[in-house]
Amino acid sequence: MSAPAGTTRRFRVFRYKRGDDGHRYDEFDVPVNERTTVLEALRWIQLRKDPTLALRHSCFHASCGTCGVRVNGREGLGCVTPLADVSGDAVTVDPIANLPVLNDLVADMVPFMDRFPEPHPNVRESEFLPAADTPEDIDGYGRFEDCIECGLCLSACPVSATDDTYVGPAALAYAQRMLEEARGADRDAILDWADSEAGAWRCHASFECTEACPSNVRPAQRIMALRRELGSRKKVSP
Amino acid sequence: MSRQGTDPGLDEIRRARDEAGPVPRKGVGPVAWFDIRHRGLGQFAFSLNRITGLGLVFYLYLHLAVLSTLLRGEEAWDSFLGIATTRFFLLLDVLLIFGLLAHGLNGLRLALVGSGRVVDHQKAFYRSIQVIGTIVLLGAALHLLGSE
User: Fold this and answer.
1) What is the pLDDT confidence band of residue B3, given thresholds at 50, 70 and 90?
2) Which chain B residues touch A if contact means CB-CB below 8 Å?
3) Which of A168, A228, B15, B73 could be bridged to A154 by S-S, CB 3.0 to 4.6 A?
4) What is the Cα–Cα distance from B74 to A73, expressed in whole angstroms?
5) Residue boundaries of the structural domains of chain B
6) ipTM of the predicted structure?
């Protein structure tokens, strides 16, 4: 669908502020063209219509993972979701599901991060500048490169929809990645962490996490690989 | 000097930050299991597995209840068989076979995928078992309903 100049789309945006009794949806008519993204439309609302609209974003190119939302019920990064790809008359934008809302479209990512097994360092491989004078032990702070920790997989997971104890796809994918490249981490400890009711065995293989992942992590495939690893370990153990 | 506790504005922000906000869900409790809107084949398989699983558990107890009519003698059992061969009951049998096929064949997919097999082709595998299941179901339905 290409939108000629002068076209508007009706936005229904989830609103919630601390202390509110519940959430509501506010409606805005947003001028769009054929290249307008969901994030651009939300920023237009924030700048032109309602400066109290809270949203989170940073890089605008699917690298930071902060602008994850649900657009007409489907998870996506607002910055790379063109409105031309969003069918229907109205565009309903919700925060990602299965995490508490802090403010409008901003979800609390702390419970998401708390699900990851230790060690879960904060520096990405791409942030190691070859020319920089980095400490000798900087490798210990490197983390799983592909995952941008946007939380879309957790939002799309049907198990997480009813079970907050489930660690979820991102954390399990991270654990499997650690097994691939342990960098000194204790493999048995990672397997022990994954080998629990709330871990790899809780997944029901719907693969919705893989469908939602904007970064080609393929969490479901990684969970299955993790299960295979756990199965092999059980076979070997007396 | 730490500003913690000295600025009422900051305290208010901290307090608000510590309050738990609402958690958006697709549905209330287990309702979320069955909501396939905006989702793909995987959610469909997941939902169908739950529905058929619950249906089969219900059937199991129903089956035990029906078998208990044997305790009431031959006449009671014959009387039940009279009802069990009506078209309505045969249609329920077809529904039961649908549940068994949907749950069992998806269980086969889950077992294979869960052990690291056909992971990259799980969608095609599910499509294939849907086709096989449909053929078996049609055959069973023709056999059951044609034998009236």
Assistant:
1) very low
2) 16-17, 19-27, 29-30, 32-33, 37-40, 42-43, 45-47, 49, 109-110, 113-116, 119-120, 122-123
3) A168
4) 57
5) 33-146
6) 0.78
pLDDT, position B1: 37
Q: Which CATH number fits domain A110-236: 1.10.8.60, 1.10.1060.10, 1.10.510.10, 1.10.940.10?
A: 1.10.1060.10
The pTM is what? 0.84
pLDDT digits (tens, 9 = 90+) for B13-68: 677 667 778 899 887 778 888 888 888 999 999 999 999 999 999 999 999 988 88
- Cβ–Cβ under 8 Å, residues A117 and A159: no
pLDDT tens track for B64-107: 988 888 888 888 888 888 888 888 889 999 999 999 999 999 99
Q: For A210, which residue in chain B has the nearest alpha carbon?
A: B42
CATH 3.10.20.30 is right for the domain spanning A7-106: yes
**A153 neighbors A168 (Cβ within 8 angstroms):** yes
**Domain residue extents for chain A:** 7-106, 110-236
- The partner residue sitting opposite B46, judged by closest CB among A73, A96, A206, is A206
Question: Is there a contact between A75 and A154 (Cβ–Cβ < 8 Å)?
Answer: no
The minimal CB distance from A206 to the residues B16, B42, B115 is found for B42
The amino acid at residue A119 is P
CB contact under 8 A, A16 and B22: yes
| Phi/psi-derived region of residue A94, left when phi > 0, alpha when psi is between -120 and 50, beta in every other case | beta
